[in-house]
Every structure is written in structure tokens, then in C-alpha cells.
Design brief:
The protein has 2 helices and 6 strands. The chain has helices at about 30-45, 80-85; strands spanning about 5-20, 20-25, 50-55, 60-70, 70-75, 90-100. A 6-stranded antiparallel barrel has the order 1-2-5-4-3-6. Strand 4 and strand 5 (about 70-75) form a beta hairpin.
Length: about 100
């Protein structure tokens, strides 16, 4: 896989974490998380975070996956939520591209 990308597609529910400010996430499906774990040692830039390009609907952006409960979560920016008209509880389809 050297020099390519790991492309993954899955669906998940948008949820919120209420810290100092509300943050919105989608949990990576278990099958996709297992594939990410396999390449994590060569793509992480520290603390287990994984740089990724995300596609949700017509929106595409770069972010980082965060490790959580043995898997990963995808942060969903407010601007993306507004552009795609999604709210907490909606199930959304995501595509991830991780450069290997």
C-alpha cells in the first residue's frame, strides 16, 4: 500500500460531545476501524490521531480521526453540518481516504 491510500466507506450516526464547546462526531464503523488499526503505526502523527480526507455528501475536507474506545471518531465541522443540513441523530454516509 506504500504511496497509495486506504479508502473506506461506512455510515454512522452524528452525535455530540459537550465539552467546553459542543463537538460533533461520527463513530467509524468497526470494520473500517479494524482496517485503520492495521495501518495506524505508519500513518499516525502522534497520540493515535490519523490524518484523513473525509467526504460527506458534496463536502470534502481534511481532518484527523481521534482514537476512542478502541476505535476512531470523525469530527464533523459546524460548517459541514450546515452545508449538508445534518443534525444530531442523523445517519450519514462517509468516505475516508488515508494516505499510506
Amino acid at each position: 500500500m506504500d504511496g497509495g491510500s486506504l479508502d473506506l466507506a461506512f455510515s454512522g450516526e452524528l452525535w455530540t460531545w459537550r465539552g467546553p464547546a459542543p463537538y460533533h462526531f461520527v463513530t467509524v464503523a468497526p470494520e473500517a476501524a479494524a482496517a485503520i488499526h492495521a495501518v495506524a503505526p505508519i500513518v499516525t502523527y502522534g497520540w493515535g490521531v490519523i490524518p484523513v480526507e473525509v467526504r460527506l455528501g458534496r463536502s470534502v475536507w481534511s481532518t484527523s480521526l481521534f482514537p476512542k474506545d478502541g476505535g476512531y471518531v470523525v469530527p464533523i465541522k459546524d460548517s459541514i453540518r450546515r452545508a449538508e443540513a445534518i443534525v444530531v441523530g442523523d445517519t450519514v454516509a462517509l468516505t475516508l481516504a488515508i494516505r499510506i
